[in-house]
Write a structure and sequence with these properties.
The protein is mainly alpha-helical and about 120 residues long. The protein has two helices and no strands. Helix 1 runs antiparallel to helix 2.
Length: about 120
């Protein structure tokens, strides 16, 4: 990155932060779906084991697959969410550094312009 125009760099960083925020939100949705899959699979397995609805071995295997798939998806998305949140924090720190380098003026001190 160049020091010529920090406002362009700040704009790029803000766009990156927005993209990372979208990724984080998508991970949160997948985490919720994974938890629902784990819970649904566990409930189906319990129902199958107790024989409440007369479901067979296929339902038991399907429920085990649902639980295991939910666990894998949950772990993957949690780690991705942590990495994304770390990247957001790094980008926000960089943005803060760039903003602090800009010589900002108070609006009241600015000369009046006639339009």
């Amino acid at each position: 990155m160049t020091d010529s125009d920090p406002t362009d760099e700040i704009s790029d960083i803000e766009a990156r932060i927005e993209a990372l925020a979208e990724i984080a939100e998508r991970c949160r949705k997948y985490i919720l779906a994974s938890k629902l899959a784990i819970g649904g699979g566990a409930a189906l397995l319990l129902i199958t084991i107790l024989g409440l609805f007369g479901m067979g071995q296929t339902a038991a295997l399907g429920s085990i697959a649902l639980v295991l798939g939910g666990i894998v998806s949950l772990g993957s998305n949690v780690s991705t969410l942590r990495q994304t949140e770390g990247a957001i924090g790094d980008a926000e720190a960089l943005r803060s550094q760039l903003i602090s380098r800009i010589d900002l003026r108070v609006v009241a001190d600015a000369p009046m312009k006639l339009v």
